[in-house]
UniProtKB/TrEMBL annotation:
It comes from the Bacteria. Its EC number is 1.1.1.25. Pathway: Metabolic intermediate biosynthesis; chorismate biosynthesis; chorismate from D-erythrose 4-phosphate and phosphoenolpyruvate: step 4/7. It comes from Chryseobacterium indologenes. It is an enzyme of class 1 (oxidoreductase). Residues 9-90 form the Shikimate dehydrogenase substrate binding N-terminal domain. GO terms for molecular function: NADP binding; shikimate 3-dehydrogenase (NADP+) activity. This is Shikimate dehydrogenase.
Amino acid sequence: MDSNKKLGLIGKNISYSFSKKFFEDKFQKLMLKNYSYDIFDLNDIQEAEKLFANPELLGFNVTIPYKEKIINYLDGLSDEAEKIGAVNCVLIRDGKKTGYNTDAFGFEKTLLLHKKAHHDKALILGNGGAAKAVKYVLDQLGIPSITISRKSEITFDTLNKETVQDHKIIIQCTPVGTFPNVEDCLEFPFDGLSAEHLIIDLIYNPNYTQFIIKAAEKGAKTVNGYYMLEQQAEKAWEIWNFQKK
């Protein structure tokens, strides 16, 4: 009999989880009876220490607000996680905890699926862990980007229509508008959008955020975060099971 293999998701106030259902469906499809996927809702990142003591823990995903804080608890980082400065997937092997960033993989797959030649400059809305992964991918692809946040050179209050017109890719990386707060929407000059714009909102619940609805009204091409989520989860599965020793 194989030993039990535990996986899970570390986060705070996780009221719903795509990951749990995704991986439980996968275990069922692959008939893996000894795998389980749990939600670890931590009030403080220090509580992660207790989790690591479990010898059956094979790895876990990391979500808001711990993608950066988890790094101090790890023994090593993959190249991309080190460059990004955020981790959303951890592999535990022989007692060693290694952090990866599969958000970058998922976002790149999403972007390349929808990007056209005129999508040559980007605005990144937000500066958390997901935004860092997005910036890393844009840099790798040679697409210049500007990050908009409360503390950046251009803030949400000072972002103008002209800057929006000039940047044909907009990636919404903040949690504003996520379930259950589905009526919330970022302050944004939607008038700067056109049919030439590609809008990627990393939120997947709801399917259509207020941000996507308002962008679509201006004729922009809109994409939510579902495909990215699926792709980053597949990549995590690969890391947990097929990462070379």
